[in-house]
Amino acid sequence: MDIIQEIIQLKKERNAVIMAHNYTLGEVQDIADYSGDSLELARIAAGCDAKVIVLCGVRFMAETAKILSPDAVVLHPAPDSGCPMADMADAEAVKKFREENPDTLLIAYVNTTAATKSEVDICCTSGNAEKIVAALPKDQKVMFLPDANLGGNLVKSLDRPMGLWNGCCPIHNRITPEDIRQARAAHPEAVVMVHPECKVEVTALADFAFSTGGMLKLVKENPATEFVVGTEIGILHRMKKENPGKKFYPLENNPVCEDMKKITLEKIAAVLRDLSGEVKLDAQTIEKARRPIEKMLELSK
Ligand code: 13P
Ligand code: SF4
Fold first, then answer.
1. Does pTM surpass 0.85?
2. R_g over Cα of the chain
3. 191 in helix, strand or coil?
4. Of 6, 30, 112, 175, whose CB count within 10 A is highest?
């Protein structure tokens, strides 16, 4: 039996669903029951009644699925697949900040550990950050963590001050204004999209700064036939598959998130075979980390 047939059979036996982030390998997205951005995956996990969830993405995404679907067995096929940005906001440092700044509201990007989420007021994703921050009174003091680029883009677009934690996505932070200028020169007819994890000076040169889910929607709905894609290259798989008549150009910079690529078909089959790689969080962490995520889902309905 080949690996794909084996995964399909194991999935049935285990009453499992497979969810994959838009940056995972093409073959992983193809075997998944659902693929999406961080917000879409969180919403699916929240409404999921499967006994087993195989979360193909980085660790914080698997933790979010466990927090929102605590009765399910959540399997993470590559336990070493973390998000370097999530590690930039250590829970102890966030707790200390909170104690020293009791009048400041803490907004955490979902790219944070469960322990860090337990210390904050509201979560957001790149798909709903603008809506969530815009809903807050302008005189409310806010610290946005850990992504100073996403936070900086919000400060600019919403014209509201916020404290910014010193973190970033190393992959998106490497994208430069020159990369965008080069792409425009090479593809003058193309619509230019970037992820809001890019620096403010990079998003300023793009036509759109959207989450991965937002980009997928845009390329479907926009009548243009060429697009420059300023984010991790894994998303090109779905873009090409869903829009066969359109052309997509990655940046010369070739942004690759190695952590996302650690999820392979072999590892998915392995965790389904023996239910290994289970995400385990204690009940108190689940309860504390759930509150800011639920607030986010409520505010972004
Ligand atoms: P999205 O929510 O846009 O999928 O982004 C997640 C992420 O990790 C981007 O680097
Ligand atoms: Fe984290 Fe960046 Fe990878 Fe997204 S692309 S998972 S933010 S390191």
1. yes
2. 19
3. strand
4. 112
